[in-house]
Amino acid sequence: MRVGTPRASANWARLPAVLCFLLLPTAAQAYPWMIRHDYTGCAVCHVDPSGGGLLTDYGRAQNVLLMQMNYTDAVKSDEPAFAGFAFGAVPLPNWLLAQVTFRGAEFWLSQTTPAHDGQPSTTATQQMFIMMLLDARAELKLGIFRAGGAIGWGTTPFTLPIAIVTNAAGTQMLITREYWVGLQVDDTTLIRVGQMNLPFGLRIVEHTAWVRYSTQTDINYSQQTGAAVAFDNGHVRTEVMGIVGNLEVSPDAYRQRGFSGLVEVPIAERATIGMSALITRAELTLASPSPGLHEVYAVFSRFAPIEQVGVVVEGDVFFNNNLGSGVLQPNGATWLQVDYEPIQGIHIMPAVETLNTYGIHGTGFGTWLTLDWFCLPHTDIRLDGVYRSEPATTSPALQTFSFLVQLHTFL
Question: Residue 350 domain-assigned?
Fold first, then answer.
């Protein structure tokens, strides 16, 4: 993305017109509620030590054993059928992991602006099919050497920050969310250099939740380039990343530099608590020609009071300050989600979220209700209903309701 060019500026200016995409949960799978199965760490199932994205062979097997609906009473094998790449039809060598992921959705949106200042209430509706995710991911493992990456296709302006080739209209993009090389020093420590997800907070599928979108820490398009060190010995999980900026952004003055990190520790058999921090500085921002400082601080927790229920919660405080202005601009966001699995393969997930924005009176409030059916190996069908009330500076809160039917599968 060329931030300084007229084409890119026009694309950014169109963002308010496509508000609907802020309500789409489209990222690769990252399920923090897996703590109900005693998984306090992420690296055993995911290549990314903080979770999400490419699965290890063990993660593929657990996806079938623990997540897919069990249609028979037969005892499952430790190496279940269809767990491998392309549902086991294409054996891969031990030094290669690969995955192709698709997520598509039929999407309905209704936005209502209440009556204000003598103006009547207005409601706008929209319906469309969206190709939400189409990525190919891989990792090479040669001794202690590691190399990973992803290439995909994007169709919304929100993927511009990770686009490497874009058509003139900015509607079709070849994108890359990550590419890196690293060293697996031992079973506890991984060192990587390249473009990666930021280690921060809960790694959740709902990347449009305010704790992810508003803090610029989602795994859909907020990746940055830098160096990261991850450590997990079962007693403490931590990852710290030094950030040099998104290399697709130009001129260089717009790139954010700083660090991001998290630490999480178990406090019970199926409970953890963690903290995160993100601090970056850019010489120029889209909002101001002066340097900008972006700071986010979070506390989060995952716990399972019983095996059928997983709970995740996060609270964030974040600042987007123009240096030299002397004005501190505090913001806040929260997320609480409960996952209930009455039978294996069926998940009922209510969630609530809040948002407080500097300069806007009132608190934004959102509710989510999700039904997710893991019907086949590496395949689920998900229904999402999302309601949000978002306070505005000059009018009553915008009332937004969206409904999605999603198909997600990966080879």
Answer: yes
* CA 48, 53, 56, 59 torsion-angle sign: positive
Task: Report how many domains make up the chain.
Answer: 1
Closest CA to 87 of 66, 72, 68, 74: 68
CATH number at residue 19: 2.40.160.10
pLDDT tens track for 128-141: 888 778 899 999 99
Q: Are 138 and 122 in contact (CB under 8 A)?
A: no
For residue 1, is it within any domain?
A: no
Query: Is 169 contained in some domain?
Result: yes
- Distance from C-alpha of 93 to C-alpha of 159, rounded to nearest angstrom: 32
**Domain assignment present for 235:** yes
pLDDT tens for residues 296-348?
999 999 999 998 999 999 999 999 888 777 777 899 999 999 999 999 999 99
Average pLDDT rounded to a whole number, residues 48-67: 89
**pTM, whole model, 2 decimals?**
0.88
Domain hosting 167: range is 6-410
Cis omega (within 30 of 0) for bond into 266? no
| Strands, E assignment, 221-256 | 224-232, 237-245
